[in-house]
Amino acid sequence: MARKRSFSAFSLSFLDIMSCGFGAVVLVFLIIKHDVDNKIEIENQDLLAEVSLLEEDIQDGQEQLVRVRNTVSELDQQLVTAEGLARRINDQIDAVEDKIVELDSLDSDQQIKLLEEKLKTIAQEKKKLEDEQQQGNQVRRFVGTGNRQYLTGLNLGGNRIVILLDISASMLDEDIVNIIRRKNMSDDTKRSSKKWQRAIMTIEWLTAQLPIQSQYQILTFNTQVKPALATTANEWLLTEDRDQLELVVKALREQVPEGGTSLVKAFWAIAQMDPLPDNVFLLTDGLPTQGLSAPKSNTVSAKDRLELFKNAVSVMPQGIPINVLLWPMEGDPMAASAFWKLALASRGSFISPAKDWP
């Protein structure tokens, strides 16, 4: 007889069922927990976005508040200005009304007399303003004793202006004998010679006429070429700097005419300037006596001097007007013709000043 199987509540099938049930419960719990976390995270992101928008709105509001305050401040200033103008207009209206009352109390003759006096006062004020304006356009003031009306054709314009001043010994006098005699005198006597003083006064007159917005340089030349103010070599100076201009003129007054004349070195110095000038004023008394080197002989013929002049012109840059102020001297008859042709060819001007100028 077969053995009867015993019954157990914890059989294998029961345990399998219990395990599956427990696993299902755990799975459901995990699914629910993940969904809750996702919802919380999404809600947090939405809240952060709303906070960010609110912060931007607050910042925009603060900026708008600053603009409004600035606008209010500007309106306050405009209001103050308008009130000031209104007061001035009221004062002018009161003054006009008082003037009308005053005129009404006068007869026609008195009114005419007052108007004539007022016109006379206005004319005087106008003339004064015109004189001040004319002086204001000049860098320096210069008052001479000669008649300068014939110099109206001299072109004093330009952005970069060079003044070449001959400081050779021939600038001491017009006669060769007197030049030789003065060469052996003291420096003070040389500086006080009439011809040299006329050259210095011409420089002062020219510098007083320079355009206020221009640049300039004053070069002296004999056998060498130097700037009038030694510290300004290779520089363009500002005309509006009056203090520096006074120093330049003061330095020229200390120069002593001596040595020969090398025009080719002067023109070569101009050719090396950067940028080039657009107007040149040449103050001299005759043709050059030497070229790049000293002559072998103590005397230079008129023909040789003319050849030296042509050599000098050949190194001068083209297209620059050369305005010549020539003080003729004894024994140099070809100078006037040569310098006149140079001025004409360069579209400059040629002047031989009178003895009482400037």
Q: Estimate what percentage of residues fall within beta strands.
A: 5-15%
Count helical runs. 9
User: What's the quaternary structure here?
Assistant: single chain
Classification by helices and strands = alpha/beta
Taken in chain order, the helices and strands follow as HHEHHHEEEHHEHEHE
Query: What is the helix content?
Result: 55-70%
Instruction: Characterize the biggest β-sheet.
Output: 7 strands, mixed
3D architecture notes:
The structure is a single chain. The protein has 358 residues and is of the alpha/beta class. 55% of the residues lie in helices and 9% in strands. The chain has 9 helices and 7 strands. It has helices at residues 12-105, 108-136, 176-183, 187-191, 194-209, 242-253, 263-271, 302-315, 335-345, and strands spanning 160-166, 215-221, 225-227, 237-238, 279-284, 322-326, 350-351. Strands 1, 2, 3, 4, 5, 6 and 7 form a 7-stranded mixed β-sheet that branches. Strand 6, helix 9 (335-345) and strand 7 form a beta-alpha-beta unit. Helix 7 (263-271) runs parallel beside helix 8. The radius of gyration is 48 Å and the shape is elongated. The model is unreliable at 142-152 (pLDDT under 50).
